[in-house]
Amino acid sequence: MPESSSWKPGFPVESPVDNFVTFNPTQADTKSVYKLLIGAIIPRPIAFVSTVSVDGIGNLAPFSFFNGVSSNPPALVISIAQREENKYKHTLQNIKDTGEFVVNSANEWLIEPLVYTAAEYPSEIDELNAVGLTALPSQLVKPARVKESAIQFECKLYETVQIGDGSPGSSTLVIGEIVLAHIWKKAWHDGKILPEAVKPVARMGGTAYAKIGEIFNRPVPSIKDQLCSD
User: Fold this and answer.
1) Which pLDDT does position 229 carry in this prediction?
2) Contacts for 181 with CB less than 8 Å, ≥ 6 apart
3) Would you state the pLDDT for residue 60?
4) Residues 6 or more apart from 160 whose CB is under 8 A from it?
5) What pLDDT is stored for residue 4 in this prediction?
6) CA-CA distance, 61 to 102, in Å (whole number)?
7) How many CB atoms lie within 10 A of CB 134?
8) The predicted structure's pLDDT at residue 151
9) DSSP 8-state assignment for residue 1
10) Spatial CB neighbours of 33, under 8 Å, sequence gap ≥ 6
């Protein structure tokens, strides 16, 4: 919405939306429902998650069903989908086994190696090394941080929640408590993170990704002041 918008509370909103297609998830297959979700819930931030197995083998993979959920305690959530019947992805297995992980930011300069880590690597391969990224030791958890990421959250498992019956399309919500954060100095100013420095990338539908476009500010108005002015 441009800064010169003339809209006021109670004014009609100009919208191109008219006719609708109704989609009933209970009458569609899992793949179709998935395509609906990733096409409709956009853009989605990407968690670039590093973990380590009980045998000490690192793993790195991106997840776009991801967001922050609490500031006290500081916590975030990742949804890790089930692809095979009762078989966990390496990331989820490592988190369940060790209770630790790191969420690294997805930045424009990382898009190519990030996409490569989404491939199905054997469990004995550390994707962080395989794609040429640099491992930084974490301070409070065992999994490594990605040096090239502008922001890194060291996390300890808070809780997992199973969604569905474990068949393909089901998922596990991984809630992680952030125990330490690392921010690139050039992206930190007066206690705030600068999005223009971080240059985050987001997930769209299909194989599409997005960069941040125009950034604008809209403070939440005081309804009390609005009512008084009326």
Assistant:
1) 58
2) 74, 151, 152, 153, 154
3) 98
4) 95, 96, 172, 173, 174, 175
5) 55
6) 11
7) 12
8) 98
9) -
10) 25, 169
How far, in Å, CA of 27 to CA of 24, rounded? 6
The CA distances from residue 206 to 110, 170, 186, in Å, are: 19, 19, 33
The label of the residue with tokens 């089901």 reads 170
Question: What pLDDT sits at residue 228?
Answer: 58
Q: Which amino acid is at 182?
A: H
Both tokens of 115, joined, read 């996409």
**Residue 26 is encoded by which pair of tokens?**
């209970």
Tokens of 31: 């793949």
State the first-to-last Cα distance of the chain, in angstroms, to the nearest integer: 24
- Which tokens belong to 111? 């898009």
pLDDT of residue 83: 77
Please give the C-alpha separations between residue 128 and each of 9, 44, 222, in angstroms, as whole numbers.
50, 22, 48
214 alpha-carbon distance from chain centroid: 21
With a CB cutoff of 8 Å and minimum separation 6, the contacts of 121 are: 127, 130
CA distance 66 to 10: 34
DSSP code at position 187 = G
How many helices and strands (H and E) does the chain possess? 6, 14
Per-10-residue mean pLDDT, the chain, length 230 = 69 92 95 94 97 97 97 98 82 97 98 96 94 98 98 98 91 97 97 96 96 88 66
pLDDT at 144: 98
